[in-house]
Amino acid sequence: MLNAKDILAGDQRAGAQVIRLIEDHDPAAFELLKELYPHSGTAFIIGITGSPGVGKSTLIDALITEFRNLDKKVAVIAVDPSSPVSGGAILGDRLRMQRHAADEKVFIRSMASRGQKGGLSRATHDAVIVLDAMGYEMIIIETVGAGQAEFDIASLAHSTGIVSIPGAGDGIQAIKAGILETGDIFIVNKSERPGADACAGELEMMLGMRPPSSTGWAPRVLKTCAIDGTGVKDLAKVFLSHFDFMKKSGRLDVKKKETEHLYFQSLLTQLALEKIMQFIHRSPEFKQALNNIESRSMDPISAAQKVVNCLCGLDTQDYKDRR
Question: Measuring CA to CA, how many Å separate 223 from each of 21, 189, 204, 272, 313?
Answer without folding.
Answer: 39, 6, 12, 46, 61
